[in-house]
């Protein structure tokens, strides 16, 4: 029975890995997307119990594997767009935005101006200045310096709230938004450009094939072990 539980645990982990890699491939062209990473870990031996009319311990499960996920914090490339509201971060770092769920961070600098002149994300969330307030611009051209200073009509309007995030503990909120522990910003800003995703297509394709192959092998192991247990259950007891 140990082999059955081990193989089943492996199938679950490989299925999660398939979903993770598929998500990376689906977002390979999403500006500022950070690739998800998966790490297989062993979980300790546990007791298997039976529920129902005759509850009790029926055995123990052998060591299996589980998948823990994280984010690849590596900086990505940059595509030139020549759109003044598009902003990219060279090196590590994030823009700070205000969402209905609170303060979040993004590398997706595909911004625009709403009807009130607020600088907003593609989802309509406010891009924040370093004083925690939304950034409001008048109609007309503006410039953004490498340090995030926004100027218009030869006057400083605001400075972008820019931050780094500690790699440990970073979480994805979806829509290219992230949470984490802030750290000093060490990058720079480029106007008229967008960050690419940091998904490595070659690596992701290889991971997808590997996960599929392992899943199929484990599924075969589960079938063989199930058949063995069924055969064992039909054997008579010699007394």
Explain this structure.
By secondary structure, the protein is of the alpha+beta class. The chain has two domains: about 1-70 and about 200-235, no CATH class; about 80-195, no CATH class. It is built from two helices and 20 strands. The protein has helices spanning about 1-25, 200-235, and strands spanning about 35-45, 45-50, 55-60, 65-70, 80, 85-90, 95-100, 100-105, 110-115, 120, 125, 145, 150, 155-160, 160-165, 170-175, 175-180, 180-185, 190, 195. Strands 7, 8, 11, 15 and 18 form a five-stranded antiparallel beta sheet that branches. A hairpin with a 4-residue loop joins strand 12 (about 145) and strand 13 (about 150). Helix 1 (about 1-25) runs antiparallel to helix 2 (about 200-235). The protein is elongated and about 90 Å long. The protein starts with a helix and ends in a 6-residue tail after the last helix.
Sheet-strand content, in percent, reads 25-35%
How many domains? The number is 2
Mean of residue pLDDT values: 86
Query: What proportion of the residues is helical, as a percent range?
Result: 10-25%
Record field, number of beta strands: 20
Termini gap: 24 Å
Radius of gyration over C-alpha positions, nearest whole angstrom: 25 Å
Form type: elongated
- Structural category is alpha+beta
Largest sheet descriptor: 5 strands, antiparallel
- The helix tally amounts to 2
Order of helices and strands: HEEEEEEEEEEEEEEEEEEEEH
List low-confidence stretches.
none
Keywords: Bacterial flagellum, Cell projection, Cilium, Flagellum
Family: Belongs to the flagella basal body rod proteins family.
GO cellular component, one term: bacterial-type flagellum basal body
InterPro entries: Flag_bb_rod_N, Flagellar_FlgE/F/G, Flg_bb/hook_C_dom, FlgE/F/G-like, LlgE_F_G-like_D1
